[in-house]
Design goal:
- The protein has a two-stranded antiparallel ribbon.
- The chain is flat and about 70 Å long.
- Helices cover 56% and strands 13% of the residues.
- A hairpin with a 2-residue loop joins strand 1 and strand 2.
- By secondary structure, it is of the alpha+beta class.
- The model has no long low-confidence stretch (mean pLDDT 91).
Length: 108
C-alpha cells in the first residue's frame, strides 16, 4: 500500500456578506475565498430591494442570480469550444489542401 497523501491545508477566513460576519474554512487560498465572498456580497447588495429583504430571501435571490451567471458562462464555453473546433477544422482543411497541392496552392 502506498502512503496516504496528507489533506490539503485548511484556511480559516473571516468575511462579511450583507453586513454579517462569517468565518469560513476552505482548502483554497484565503484570497480566493475573500474574492468569492465579495462577489456574493456584491450580488446581494445589487438586489433592488436589498435593504428591506429578509436575509434568507436575499441569499436565495443572490443564489439564483449567480447560478444564472454560471449557466450563461457554461453556454458560452460550449459555444466557444464549438467555434474553436470549426476554426481548427477549417485551418486543417486549408493545410491539407496546401500540402496536397489543392485549390489555392501555387502551381510549380
Amino acid at each position: 500500500m502506498s502512503p496516504r497523501k496528507p489533506p490539503p491545508p485548511r484556511h480559516t477566513v473571516a468575511v462579511e456578506i450583507a453586513g454579517e460576519r462569517h468565518v469560513l474554512r476552505s482548502d483554497v487560498s484565503p484570497e480566493y475565498t475573500r474574492s468569492v465572498a465579495e462577489h456574493v456580497d456584491a450580488t446581494i447588495r445589487s438586489l433592488p430591494s436589498f435593504p428591506t429583504l429578509e436575509p434568507f430571501r436575499a441569499a436565495t435571490l443572490a443564489a439564483l442570480s449567480i447560478t444564472d451567471e454560471l449557466f450563461k458562462a457554461r453556454e458560452e464555453i460550449v459555444r466557444l469550444r464549438a467555434e474553436i473546433g470549426r476554426s481548427v477544422d477549417d485551418v486543417s482543411s486549408l493545410l491539407e489542401e496546401a500540402v496536397n497541392g489543392g485549390a489555392g496552392a501555387p502551381e510549380q
